[in-house]
Amino acid sequence: MSYPGEGAPLSPSEERTWGMVAHIGVLVAAWFAMGFLCPLVVWLLYRSRSEFVRRHAVESLNFQLSLLIYAVVAGLLIVITFGLGVIVVLPLAAIGAIAALVLIILATVAASNGRDYRYPLTLRMVK
């Protein structure tokens, strides 16, 4: 019996497709506040079949986990300042959301073109 992560290496076309899914799929998962799930699933299923897909999935996963950590810190800032932090956090969150969307699109295009992509301001927790 074989598992999805086992099997023949992926073709270059499949590598680009799954690399793109690792990035753009977060937009679907983000509706459920679980943006990290899509790159995690892609990484778990294809990490042993393609180094290219593994790199893109890890990069996307680290970016999504970084965004989650930044959101928790922002929430703590609001709580610690008894709500006054909202004055700073809301504008930064809006700018951050737009920047994240642009970066996700850039990463998806890079994967589509067979290039690597590194997100800025990302904590690299998963190797």
From TrEMBL:
<dbReference type="Pfam" id="PF09685">
    <property type="entry name" value="MamF_MmsF"/>
</dbReference>
<keyword id="KW-1133">Transmembrane helix</keyword>
<keyword id="KW-0812">Transmembrane</keyword>
<feature type="transmembrane region" description="Helical">
    <location>
        <begin position="67"/>
        <end position="87"/>
    </location>
</feature>
<protein>
    <recommendedName>
        <fullName>Tic20 family protein</fullName>
    </recommendedName>
</protein>
<feature type="transmembrane region" description="Helical">
    <location>
        <begin position="93"/>
        <end position="111"/>
    </location>
</feature>
<keyword id="KW-0472">Membrane</keyword>
<feature type="transmembrane region" description="Helical">
    <location>
        <begin position="20"/>
        <end position="46"/>
    </location>
</feature>
<dbReference type="InterPro" id="IPR019109">
    <property type="entry name" value="MamF_MmsF"/>
</dbReference>
